[in-house]
Protein backbone atom coordinates (compact mmCIF):
# COMPACT_ATOMS: atom_id res chain seq x y z
CA UNK A 1 0.00 0.00 0.00
CA UNK A 2 2.80 2.41 0.95
CA UNK A 3 4.78 1.44 -2.16
CA UNK A 4 1.73 2.07 -4.35
CA UNK A 5 1.25 5.49 -2.74
CA UNK A 6 4.90 6.38 -3.36
CA UNK A 7 4.58 5.31 -7.01
CA UNK A 8 1.45 7.44 -7.43
CA UNK A 9 3.23 10.44 -5.92
CA UNK A 10 6.20 9.94 -8.24
CA UNK A 11 3.84 9.63 -11.20
CA UNK A 12 1.93 12.80 -10.27
CA UNK A 13 5.20 14.72 -9.75
CA UNK A 14 6.52 13.57 -13.12
CA UNK A 15 3.31 14.54 -14.92
CA UNK A 16 3.30 18.00 -13.32
CA UNK A 17 6.91 18.46 -14.39
CA UNK A 18 6.12 17.34 -17.95
CA UNK A 19 3.09 19.66 -18.13
CA UNK A 20 4.99 22.74 -16.97
CA UNK A 21 8.06 21.98 -19.08
CA UNK A 22 5.83 21.48 -22.14
CA UNK A 23 3.94 24.70 -21.38
CA UNK A 24 7.13 26.72 -20.91
CA UNK A 25 8.60 25.45 -24.20
CA UNK A 26 5.42 26.31 -26.07
CA UNK A 27 5.17 29.77 -24.53
CA UNK A 28 8.84 30.49 -25.28
CA UNK A 29 8.28 29.45 -28.89
CA UNK A 30 5.27 31.74 -29.16
CA UNK A 31 7.00 34.68 -27.48
CA UNK A 32 10.40 34.56 -29.18
CA UNK A 33 9.87 32.73 -32.47
CA UNK A 34 6.34 33.27 -33.79
CA UNK A 35 5.32 36.28 -31.72
CA UNK A 36 2.33 36.20 -29.40
CA UNK A 37 0.56 39.03 -31.23
CA UNK A 38 1.43 37.97 -34.78
CA UNK A 39 -1.80 38.02 -36.83
CA UNK A 40 -3.09 34.74 -38.30
CA UNK A 41 -2.45 33.79 -41.92
CA UNK A 42 -4.01 31.44 -44.50
CA UNK A 43 -6.61 29.05 -42.99
CA UNK A 44 -6.15 30.59 -39.55
CA UNK A 45 -7.69 33.87 -40.76
CA UNK A 46 -11.06 32.16 -41.24
CA UNK A 47 -11.00 30.50 -37.81
CA UNK A 48 -10.10 33.84 -36.29
CA UNK A 49 -12.81 35.74 -38.20
CA UNK A 50 -15.54 33.28 -37.21
CA UNK A 51 -14.39 33.26 -33.58
CA UNK A 52 -14.38 37.05 -33.39
CA UNK A 53 -17.81 37.32 -35.04
CA UNK A 54 -19.16 34.82 -32.51
CA UNK A 55 -17.68 36.86 -29.67
CA UNK A 56 -19.36 40.01 -31.05
CA UNK A 57 -22.71 38.24 -31.29
CA UNK A 58 -22.78 38.19 -35.10
CA UNK A 59 -23.11 34.44 -35.34
CA UNK A 60 -20.99 31.78 -37.04
CA UNK A 61 -19.95 33.87 -40.04
CA UNK A 62 -16.93 34.88 -42.09
CA UNK A 63 -15.81 38.41 -42.89
CA UNK A 64 -15.89 37.45 -46.57
CA UNK A 65 -18.09 34.68 -48.03
CA UNK A 66 -16.65 31.47 -49.44
CA UNK A 67 -15.87 31.91 -53.14
CA UNK A 68 -19.00 31.67 -55.27
CA UNK A 69 -21.45 32.00 -52.35
CA UNK A 70 -23.24 35.22 -51.46
CA UNK A 71 -23.86 34.63 -47.73
CA UNK A 72 -21.21 35.17 -45.04
CA UNK A 73 -23.06 32.77 -42.73
CA UNK A 74 -20.94 29.67 -43.06
CA UNK A 75 -20.60 25.94 -42.46
CA UNK A 76 -17.30 25.79 -44.32
CA UNK A 77 -15.18 25.48 -41.17
CA UNK A 78 -15.67 23.02 -38.31
CA UNK A 79 -17.07 24.79 -35.24
CA UNK A 80 -15.01 23.67 -32.25
CA UNK A 81 -11.95 25.92 -32.67
CA UNK A 82 -13.99 29.05 -33.55
CA UNK A 83 -16.11 28.52 -30.42
CA UNK A 84 -12.96 28.10 -28.31
CA UNK A 85 -11.57 31.32 -29.81
CA UNK A 86 -14.87 33.12 -29.25
CA UNK A 87 -14.69 32.25 -25.56
CA UNK A 88 -11.18 33.70 -25.37
CA UNK A 89 -12.16 36.83 -27.33
CA UNK A 90 -15.32 37.33 -25.27
CA UNK A 91 -13.31 37.40 -22.03
CA UNK A 92 -9.99 38.96 -23.11
CA UNK A 93 -10.90 40.86 -26.28
CA UNK A 94 -9.53 40.12 -29.74
CA UNK A 95 -6.25 38.87 -28.29
CA UNK A 96 -4.07 36.61 -30.43
CA UNK A 97 -1.65 36.20 -27.51
CA UNK A 98 -4.33 34.79 -25.20
CA UNK A 99 -5.53 32.44 -27.94
CA UNK A 100 -1.97 31.11 -28.40
CA UNK A 101 -1.59 30.69 -24.64
CA UNK A 102 -4.79 28.62 -24.69
CA UNK A 103 -3.37 26.44 -27.48
CA UNK A 104 -0.12 26.07 -25.54
CA UNK A 105 -2.05 24.84 -22.50
CA UNK A 106 -3.96 22.32 -24.63
CA UNK A 107 -0.69 21.16 -26.19
CA UNK A 108 0.94 20.70 -22.79
CA UNK A 109 -2.06 18.76 -21.50
CA UNK A 110 -1.86 16.46 -24.54
CA UNK A 111 1.56 15.28 -23.32
CA UNK A 112 -0.14 13.99 -20.16
CA UNK A 113 -2.74 12.11 -22.21
CA UNK A 114 0.04 10.57 -24.32
CA UNK A 115 1.68 9.34 -21.12
CA UNK A 116 -1.45 7.36 -20.19
CA UNK A 117 -1.79 5.95 -23.73
CA UNK A 118 1.79 4.67 -23.52
CA UNK A 119 1.29 3.37 -19.99
CA UNK A 120 -1.90 1.43 -20.71
CA UNK A 121 -0.77 0.18 -24.12
CA UNK A 122 2.63 -1.01 -22.90
CA UNK A 123 3.84 0.03 -19.45
CA UNK A 124 4.74 2.98 -17.23
CA UNK A 125 8.25 3.37 -18.65
CA UNK A 126 6.90 3.67 -22.18
CA UNK A 127 4.40 6.24 -20.90
CA UNK A 128 7.15 8.28 -19.27
CA UNK A 129 9.35 8.33 -22.35
CA UNK A 130 6.40 9.02 -24.69
CA UNK A 131 5.36 12.02 -22.59
CA UNK A 132 8.92 13.35 -22.46
CA UNK A 133 9.37 13.06 -26.23
CA UNK A 134 5.97 14.71 -26.82
CA UNK A 135 6.95 17.51 -24.48
CA UNK A 136 9.94 18.53 -26.62
CA UNK A 137 8.71 17.32 -30.04
CA UNK A 138 9.17 20.31 -32.41
CA UNK A 139 6.02 19.77 -34.50
CA UNK A 140 3.75 19.73 -31.45
CA UNK A 141 5.36 22.95 -30.24
CA UNK A 142 5.25 24.59 -33.66
CA UNK A 143 1.49 24.39 -34.26
CA UNK A 144 0.60 26.03 -30.94
CA UNK A 145 1.84 29.24 -32.57
CA UNK A 146 -0.93 29.27 -35.20
CA UNK A 147 -4.69 29.54 -34.82
CA UNK A 148 -5.33 26.22 -36.52
CA UNK A 149 -7.39 23.22 -35.45
CA UNK A 150 -4.41 20.85 -35.24
CA UNK A 151 -3.55 21.37 -31.56
CA UNK A 152 -7.06 20.85 -30.09
CA UNK A 153 -7.69 18.04 -32.58
CA UNK A 154 -4.55 16.16 -31.52
CA UNK A 155 -5.66 16.48 -27.89
CA UNK A 156 -9.18 15.18 -28.62
CA UNK A 157 -7.93 12.29 -30.76
CA UNK A 158 -5.53 11.26 -27.98
CA UNK A 159 -8.32 11.46 -25.38
CA UNK A 160 -10.61 9.43 -27.64
CA UNK A 161 -7.96 6.74 -28.10
CA UNK A 162 -7.21 6.69 -24.36
CA UNK A 163 -10.92 6.17 -23.64
CA UNK A 164 -10.97 3.15 -25.97
CA UNK A 165 -7.75 1.80 -24.44
CA UNK A 166 -9.33 2.04 -20.97
CA UNK A 167 -12.56 0.53 -22.31
CA UNK A 168 -10.58 -2.46 -23.59
CA UNK A 169 -8.79 -2.78 -20.26
CA UNK A 170 -11.70 -2.27 -17.85
CA UNK A 171 -14.78 -3.07 -19.94
CA UNK A 172 -17.00 -0.49 -18.19
CA UNK A 173 -19.65 1.18 -20.35
CA UNK A 174 -18.70 4.65 -19.08
CA UNK A 175 -15.48 4.45 -21.10
CA UNK A 176 -17.38 3.60 -24.28
CA UNK A 177 -19.73 6.55 -23.63
CA UNK A 178 -16.75 8.83 -23.06
CA UNK A 179 -15.13 7.55 -26.26
CA UNK A 180 -18.28 8.47 -28.21
CA UNK A 181 -18.42 11.94 -26.67
CA UNK A 182 -14.75 12.59 -27.47
CA UNK A 183 -15.16 11.21 -30.99
CA UNK A 184 -18.05 13.63 -31.52
CA UNK A 185 -15.96 16.56 -30.25
CA UNK A 186 -13.05 15.49 -32.46
CA UNK A 187 -15.38 15.47 -35.49
CA UNK A 188 -16.58 18.97 -34.58
CA UNK A 189 -12.93 20.01 -34.62
CA UNK A 190 -12.04 18.23 -37.88
CA UNK A 191 -14.70 16.04 -39.54
CA UNK A 192 -12.13 13.64 -40.95
CA UNK A 193 -13.05 11.10 -38.24
CA UNK A 194 -16.68 10.85 -39.37
CA UNK A 195 -15.89 7.71 -41.38
CA UNK A 196 -14.02 5.86 -38.61
CA UNK A 197 -16.96 3.94 -36.99
CA UNK A 198 -16.48 0.79 -39.15
CA UNK A 199 -12.87 0.61 -37.95
CA UNK A 200 -14.05 0.87 -34.34
CA UNK A 201 -16.54 -1.96 -34.86
CA UNK A 202 -13.87 -4.13 -36.45
CA UNK A 203 -11.54 -3.41 -33.52
CA UNK A 204 -14.25 -4.37 -31.02
CA UNK A 205 -14.91 -7.65 -32.79
CA UNK A 206 -11.24 -8.62 -33.19
CA UNK A 207 -9.71 -7.45 -29.92
CA UNK A 208 -12.41 -7.49 -27.28
CA UNK A 209 -13.41 -11.12 -27.80
CA UNK A 210 -17.04 -10.23 -27.14
CA UNK A 211 -19.88 -12.07 -28.76
CA UNK A 212 -21.08 -10.24 -31.85
CA UNK A 213 -24.15 -9.04 -29.95
CA UNK A 214 -22.02 -7.56 -27.15
CA UNK A 215 -19.66 -5.90 -29.62
CA UNK A 216 -22.62 -4.33 -31.41
CA UNK A 217 -24.03 -3.04 -28.10
CA UNK A 218 -20.77 -1.30 -27.23
CA UNK A 219 -20.45 0.02 -30.76
CA UNK A 220 -24.00 1.46 -30.63
CA UNK A 221 -23.19 3.17 -27.32
CA UNK A 222 -20.16 4.87 -28.88
CA UNK A 223 -22.07 5.95 -32.00
CA UNK A 224 -25.10 7.25 -30.06
CA UNK A 225 -22.85 9.35 -27.83
CA UNK A 226 -21.05 10.65 -30.92
CA UNK A 227 -24.34 11.52 -32.66
CA UNK A 228 -25.67 13.33 -29.59
CA UNK A 229 -22.61 15.59 -29.64
CA UNK A 230 -22.69 16.30 -33.39
CA UNK A 231 -26.49 16.50 -33.87
CA UNK A 232 -27.04 20.09 -32.61
CA UNK A 233 -24.50 21.38 -35.12
CA UNK A 234 -25.98 19.26 -37.93
CA UNK A 235 -29.44 20.68 -37.14
CA UNK A 236 -28.00 24.20 -37.23
CA UNK A 237 -26.40 23.47 -40.62
CA UNK A 238 -29.70 22.16 -41.97
CA UNK A 239 -31.41 25.41 -41.00
CA UNK A 240 -28.65 27.47 -42.62
CA UNK A 241 -27.82 25.38 -45.69
CA UNK A 242 -31.24 23.70 -46.16
CA UNK A 243 -29.38 20.41 -46.62
CA UNK A 244 -27.89 17.59 -44.58
CA UNK A 245 -24.39 18.83 -43.65
CA UNK A 246 -23.06 16.80 -40.68
CA UNK A 247 -20.20 19.17 -39.84
CA UNK A 248 -18.73 21.16 -42.73
CA UNK A 249 -19.59 22.05 -46.30
CA UNK A 250 -16.00 21.84 -47.55
CA UNK A 251 -15.72 18.12 -48.44
CA UNK A 252 -16.50 18.58 -52.14
CA UNK A 253 -14.06 21.43 -52.71
CA UNK A 254 -11.25 19.61 -50.87
CA UNK A 255 -11.93 16.42 -52.84
CA UNK A 256 -11.78 18.44 -56.08
CA UNK A 257 -8.52 20.12 -55.02
CA UNK A 258 -7.02 16.66 -54.58
CA UNK A 259 -8.53 15.09 -57.71
CA UNK A 260 -8.64 17.32 -60.78
CA UNK A 261 -6.79 17.44 -64.13
CA UNK A 262 -4.05 19.71 -62.77
CA UNK A 263 -3.60 17.92 -59.41
CA UNK A 264 -0.07 16.73 -58.69
CA UNK A 265 -0.73 14.80 -55.48
CA UNK A 266 0.63 17.59 -53.33
CA UNK A 267 -1.12 20.29 -51.31
CA UNK A 268 0.95 22.97 -52.96
CA UNK A 269 1.53 22.82 -56.69
CA UNK A 270 -1.92 21.81 -57.90
CA UNK A 271 -3.85 24.18 -60.15
CA UNK A 272 -7.52 24.06 -59.36
CA UNK A 273 -9.72 26.07 -61.69
CA UNK A 274 -12.46 27.66 -59.64
CA UNK A 275 -15.21 28.88 -61.95
CA UNK A 276 -15.48 32.52 -60.90
CA UNK A 277 -18.64 32.92 -62.98
CA UNK A 278 -20.42 30.16 -61.11
CA UNK A 279 -22.65 31.48 -58.31
CA UNK A 280 -24.29 29.27 -55.72
CA UNK A 281 -27.32 29.73 -53.53
CA UNK A 282 -25.57 28.09 -50.58
CA UNK A 283 -22.31 26.48 -49.54
CA UNK A 284 -23.99 23.10 -49.88
CA UNK A 285 -24.64 23.81 -53.56
CA UNK A 286 -20.95 24.69 -53.96
CA UNK A 287 -19.99 21.53 -52.06
CA UNK A 288 -22.21 19.33 -54.25
CA UNK A 289 -20.93 20.98 -57.43
CA UNK A 290 -17.26 20.28 -56.71
CA UNK A 291 -17.98 16.89 -55.17
CA UNK A 292 -19.67 15.79 -58.40
CA UNK A 293 -16.77 17.16 -60.46
CA UNK A 294 -14.28 15.23 -58.33
CA UNK A 295 -16.23 11.95 -58.32
CA UNK A 296 -16.76 12.11 -62.08
CA UNK A 297 -13.06 12.77 -62.60
CA UNK A 298 -12.14 9.79 -60.40
CA UNK A 299 -14.58 7.52 -62.27
CA UNK A 300 -13.21 8.64 -65.65
CA UNK A 301 -9.54 8.46 -64.62
CA UNK A 302 -9.19 5.59 -62.08
CA UNK A 303 -5.54 4.94 -62.92
CA UNK A 304 -4.59 8.55 -62.33
CA UNK A 305 -6.56 8.57 -59.06
CA UNK A 306 -4.50 5.63 -57.75
CA UNK A 307 -1.32 7.30 -58.99
CA UNK A 308 -2.23 10.50 -57.11
CA UNK A 309 -3.14 8.42 -54.05
CA UNK A 310 0.33 6.86 -54.12
CA UNK A 311 1.97 10.28 -54.34
CA UNK A 312 -0.17 11.51 -51.45
CA UNK A 313 0.91 8.49 -49.39
CA UNK A 314 4.52 9.57 -49.87
CA UNK A 315 3.63 13.21 -49.14
CA UNK A 316 1.88 12.19 -45.95
CA UNK A 317 4.85 10.24 -44.60
CA UNK A 318 7.71 12.28 -46.04
CA UNK A 319 10.51 13.51 -43.80
CA UNK A 320 11.66 16.60 -45.71
CA UNK A 321 9.91 19.19 -47.85
CA UNK A 322 10.97 21.43 -50.73
CA UNK A 323 8.74 24.16 -49.27
CA UNK A 324 10.85 24.87 -46.18
CA UNK A 325 14.44 25.87 -45.41
CA UNK A 326 17.41 23.55 -45.02
CA UNK A 327 17.44 24.22 -41.26
CA UNK A 328 13.79 23.15 -40.92
CA UNK A 329 14.42 20.03 -43.00
CA UNK A 330 17.36 19.12 -40.77
CA UNK A 331 15.12 19.66 -37.75
CA UNK A 332 12.51 17.36 -39.29
CA UNK A 333 15.12 14.66 -39.96
CA UNK A 334 16.42 14.85 -36.38
CA UNK A 335 12.91 14.73 -34.86
CA UNK A 336 10.25 13.12 -37.04
CA UNK A 337 12.82 11.16 -39.06
CA UNK A 338 14.22 9.53 -35.92
CA UNK A 339 10.72 8.89 -34.52
CA UNK A 340 9.64 7.29 -37.82
CA UNK A 341 12.61 4.92 -37.76
CA UNK A 342 11.96 3.82 -34.17
CA UNK A 343 8.19 3.64 -34.87
CA UNK A 344 8.76 1.03 -37.57
CA UNK A 345 11.05 -0.89 -35.24
CA UNK A 346 8.54 -0.56 -32.39
CA UNK A 347 5.71 -2.00 -34.48
CA UNK A 348 7.89 -4.99 -35.40
CA UNK A 349 9.03 -5.59 -31.81
CA UNK A 350 5.51 -5.31 -30.38
CA UNK A 351 3.78 -7.79 -32.69
CA UNK A 352 3.33 -10.23 -29.80
CA UNK A 353 1.20 -7.59 -28.07
CA UNK A 354 -0.94 -7.01 -31.16
CA UNK A 355 -4.21 -7.03 -29.22
CA UNK A 356 -3.02 -4.03 -27.23
CA UNK A 357 -1.49 -2.17 -30.16
CA UNK A 358 -4.05 -2.90 -32.88
CA UNK A 359 -6.14 0.20 -32.03
CA UNK A 360 -3.16 2.51 -32.58
CA UNK A 361 -2.28 0.75 -35.84
CA UNK A 362 -5.88 1.03 -37.06
CA UNK A 363 -6.04 4.77 -36.25
CA UNK A 364 -2.74 5.33 -38.10
CA UNK A 365 -3.94 3.24 -41.08
CA UNK A 366 -7.33 4.96 -41.25
CA UNK A 367 -5.80 8.41 -41.16
CA UNK A 368 -3.29 7.50 -43.87
CA UNK A 369 -5.99 6.09 -46.16
CA UNK A 370 -8.18 9.18 -45.77
CA UNK A 371 -5.32 11.47 -46.79
CA UNK A 372 -4.52 9.29 -49.78
CA UNK A 373 -7.97 10.30 -51.08
CA UNK A 374 -7.91 13.93 -49.96
CA UNK A 375 -5.01 16.35 -49.51
CA UNK A 376 -1.81 15.32 -47.73
CA UNK A 377 0.89 17.39 -46.10
CA UNK A 378 2.98 17.49 -42.92
CA UNK A 379 0.47 19.17 -40.61
CA UNK A 380 -2.27 16.71 -41.56
CA UNK A 381 -0.08 13.93 -40.14
CA UNK A 382 0.13 15.58 -36.71
CA UNK A 383 -2.86 13.75 -35.07
CA UNK A 384 -1.24 10.32 -35.48
CA UNK A 385 2.26 11.34 -34.41
CA UNK A 386 1.50 10.74 -30.71
CA UNK A 387 1.01 7.06 -31.60
CA UNK A 388 4.22 6.98 -33.63
CA UNK A 389 5.96 8.35 -30.54
CA UNK A 390 4.47 5.63 -28.30
CA UNK A 391 5.79 2.88 -30.58
CA UNK A 392 9.13 4.67 -30.89
CA UNK A 393 9.40 4.92 -27.09
CA UNK A 394 8.74 1.19 -26.81
CA UNK A 395 11.48 0.41 -29.34
CA UNK A 396 14.00 2.70 -27.61
CA UNK A 397 13.33 1.08 -24.23
CA UNK A 398 13.65 -2.41 -25.72
CA UNK A 399 17.06 -1.49 -27.10
CA UNK A 400 18.07 0.00 -23.74
CA UNK A 401 16.86 -3.15 -22.01
CA UNK A 402 19.03 -5.37 -24.24
CA UNK A 403 22.02 -3.09 -23.63
CA UNK A 404 21.45 -3.20 -19.85
CA UNK A 405 21.25 -6.99 -19.81
CA UNK A 406 24.45 -7.28 -21.80
CA UNK A 407 26.31 -4.90 -19.51
CA UNK A 408 24.49 -5.71 -16.25
CA UNK A 409 23.33 -2.11 -15.75
CA UNK A 410 20.39 -1.26 -13.49
CA UNK A 411 17.93 1.45 -14.49
CA UNK A 412 14.92 2.48 -12.43
CA UNK A 413 12.06 4.72 -13.57
What's the topology here?
Layout: H1 2-34, H2 43-55, H3 80-92, H4 96-121, H5 124-136, H6 138-142, H7 150-170, H8 173-189, H9 197-207, H10 212-241, H11 251-258, H12 283-300, H13 302-317, H14 326-349, H15 354-373, H16 385-407
Average pLDDT figure: 91
Low-confidence residue ranges = none
Structural class: mainly alpha
Describe the largest sheet: none
Q: Which percent band covers the strand fraction?
A: under 5%
Helix percentage: over 70%
Helical segment tally? 16
Radius of gyration: 22 Å
Order of helices and strands: HHHHHHHHHHHHHHHH
Number of strands: 0
Structure, described:
- The protein is an all-alpha fold and 413 residues long.
- The protein has helices at 2-34, 43-55, 80-92, 96-121, 124-136, 138-142, 150-170, 173-189, 197-207, 212-241, 251-258, 283-300, 302-317, 326-349, 354-373, 385-407.
- Helix 5 (124-136) crosses helix 16.
- It is globular.
- The model has no long low-confidence stretch (mean pLDDT 91).
Amino acid sequence: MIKKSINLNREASFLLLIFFLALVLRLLFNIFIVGLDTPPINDATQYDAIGYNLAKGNGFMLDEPVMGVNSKITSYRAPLLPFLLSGVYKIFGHSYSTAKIMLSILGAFTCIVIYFIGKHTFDRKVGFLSALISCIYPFFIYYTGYLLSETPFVMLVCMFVLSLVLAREKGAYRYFIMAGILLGLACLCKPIFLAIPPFILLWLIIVQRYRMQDSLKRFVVIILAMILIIAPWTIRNYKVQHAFVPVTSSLGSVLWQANNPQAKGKTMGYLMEWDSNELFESEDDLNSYYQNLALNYIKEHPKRFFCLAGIRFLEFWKITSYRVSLAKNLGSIMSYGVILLFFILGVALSLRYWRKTLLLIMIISYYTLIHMVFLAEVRYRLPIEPFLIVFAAYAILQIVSVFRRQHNISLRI
